[in-house]
Amino acid sequence: MKKSQIVVGLTGPIASGKSTVATMLRERGVVVIDADQVYRSLAMAGGPLWQPIVTRFGSAIVRSDGEIDRGALGRLVFADQQALMDLEHVTHPVIVKEIRRQLKETPAPVVAIEAVKLVQAGLRADIDQLWIITADPATRLQRLVCRTGIEDAEARMRMAAASDSSLTRVAGDVVIDNSGPVVATEHAVGAAWEKLACKFPLDQLIERTKSEEFREVR
């Protein structure tokens, strides 16, 4: 049976390099739905997640401009497992609903969903192939510290908290180790892309992906 759209799930621990792989897929014409970007837009002042988050965590996490201080919120939830669970209980259903809306509305033949807790949030049934992006802990720690400017201790705490407890390496259709140089990751993505084209009867679908541009739904 031919499909009009193939959905790839990109997941893996924080700082494993999911965004790097997402960029490589974009270069192949894939539309990427970034769960973190979806969350950011929904949690903006006036968005559907702003009030529930502020109600749970208080005005101390609100900046002077009315927006949620992601740094302050992060320090709260990554230090308290129950607080993190509360945040996810509030946010995951709304984020999943928005991701599904974007999936439905984009005409792109190949779409990728990028999310740390993709499986735990309940999106496994929405995707055709699950790609797990990995990297060794030392590499991830270095990336996270460089990217955010936080101290090692806080970075380790975030790494421990921001993982999908329902995800194992064997659950992935594709596992890409992103610990090494970018060229190695590019090679792995290329191989996975070819396998995707072989597994699914994409036919003209892949040609459409290469020849047409599709805007990411907002």
> From the alpha-carbon coordinates, what is the Rg to the nearest angstrom?
18 Å
Q: Which CATH C-level class is it?
A: Alpha Beta
The domain tally reads: 1
Q: What is the helix content? A: 40-55%
E-strand count: 5
Number of helices: 9
Give the spatial strand order of the biggest sheet.
2-3-1-4-5
Kindly name the structural category: alpha/beta
Task: Give the distance, in angstroms, between the N- and C-terminal Cα atoms.
Answer: 30 Å
Approximately what portion of the residues adopt beta-strand conformation? 5-15%
Largest sheet: 5 strands, parallel
Q: Determine the mean pLDDT.
A: 90
Mind telling me the CATH superfamily name? P-loop containing nucleotide triphosphate hydrolases
The CATH topology is Rossmann fold
| Spatial shape | globular
H/E series, N to C? EHEHHHHEEHHEHH
Runs in which pLDDT lies below 50 for 5 or more consecutive residues are none
CATH architecture: 3-Layer(aba) Sandwich
Describe this structure in words.
- The chain has one domain (6-210): Rossmann fold.
- Helix 2 crosses helix 5 (81-105).
- The protein has helices spanning 18-26, 35-42, 50-57, 70-77, 81-105, 137-148, 152-161, 182-199, 204-211, and strands at 6-11, 31-34, 110-114, 129-134, 174-177.
- Strands 2-3-1-4-5 form a 5-stranded parallel beta sheet, sandwiched between helices.
- The mean pLDDT is 90.
- It has 9 helices and 5 strands.
Supply database-style keywords.
single chain; 218 residues; alpha/beta; Rossmann fold; five-stranded parallel sheet
What layout of secondary structure does this protein have?
Blueprint: E1 6-11, H1 18-26, E2 31-34, H2 35-42, H3 50-57, H4 70-77, H5 81-105, E3 110-114, E4 129-134, H6 137-148, H7 152-161, E5 174-177, H8 182-199, H9 204-211
Parallel strand pairs: 1-3, 1-4, 2-3, 4-5
Helix pairs in contact: 1-8, 2-5, 6-7
